[in-house]
Amino acid sequence: MTTSTQPSFQPSSEEQGATLSALQPMYSALVREFVIEASTCPVDEEFATSPESIEHAEAWFQQVDAQIQVHQLRQFLQTTPLANEGVLRHLLLHHMHKAVKSTSDRDKTDFLLVQYFSLCAPSGLEDTDLDLDYVAQVLEPVLGPQQATLPSWLTSLETIMQSAARCRRLSELLHSGALEQGRKLKTQSSARYFEASAMVAFARFSFMIRRIFFRLMHDDLNAIQDGLRELERRGISTIDCRRAQFSAEEPTGRLRMICQSWKVMFHAEYSSGQPLRMLVDLRAAVDDALQNGASKNSLAASAAASATSDDGPQE
């Protein structure tokens, strides 16, 4: 799927050349990382910014773009030292200035806007500080100055964010439909996605949803690890985790190691895919084990009390 759009402004040959030159090291690394079939990059130290050389270079970048999926770009940018503020800004300009933008270009732009905002916004930012004006201010180097207003066709974004913010567990967020509703709006937006006001609104929405997701994910992982420690304190070393696609007698020590690895794996992305379902189901399995252990202890205590009463002196 492609959408023909006109960029908000047409960069000069010098600006286009600067963008391509800045991106050359990263794109060359992407080609090596994911073993992409592509010719040698035409941008080098002798790169000229004539219309012909720009056209030749852009054709090479388009060839690589067509073979790089958004999840690969996400994985690469969150592990490479090349992903600084300047590179992210050039990446955004590269995708936004395309005359014909694909669905992949939209998804990459959506990810890059949030990544750029996360890098440039100060740490410790409160949710109350994240209004449209503030997001527009941080994104000004790539979107230009503007008066931030929420497009009428995106008013539901606020409702979706409020629904997500009320979730207290990751399972609630995944079942709330907030992630799917946000993706649906982006898909339905088509060419309107690349309007500056829409990109600001979507960047704010995605940043807030990601923040909610990571908070709930860490809460679940911490709850699982606390539950495993409590089970071990009770002398329980294995639990039934078949619902989470593990064994019927999964060692608690192994589960703690898995949780540590998940903290790293889930750091990069949020989605409703299978690994997250496993995390949700594992917390439910640990909760069940804790509850069943409490129930068994209660039954044992009742039985002991009953036996004592039966054996005691009769009135």
Describe the structure.
With 315 residues, the protein is mostly helical. It is 65% helix and 3% strand. The chain has 13 helices and 4 strands.
Q: Give the SSE order as H and E letters.
A: EHHHHEHHHHHHHEEHH
> What Rg do the Cα atoms give?
26 Å
Number of helices: 13
Estimated helix fraction: 55-70%
Strand arrangement across the biggest beta sheet: 1-2
Low-confidence stretches: 4-8, 297-309, 311-315
Beta-strand percent range: under 5%
**What distance separates the N and C termini?**
87 Å
Question: What class do helices, strands and sheet pairing give?
Answer: mainly alpha
Q: Mean pLDDT, rounded to whole units?
A: 85
Task: List the topology elements.
Layout: E1 2-4, H1 13-33, H2 51-65, H3 70-77, H4 85-96, E2 100-102, H5 103-120, H6 132-138, H7 140-143, H8 156-165, H9 170-176, H10 178-189, H11 196-233, E3 238-239, E4 250-251, H12 252-265, H13 274-311
Antiparallel strand pairs: 1-2, 3-4
Helix pairs in contact: 1-2, 1-4, 4-5, 5-11, 8-11, 10-11, 11-12, 11-13
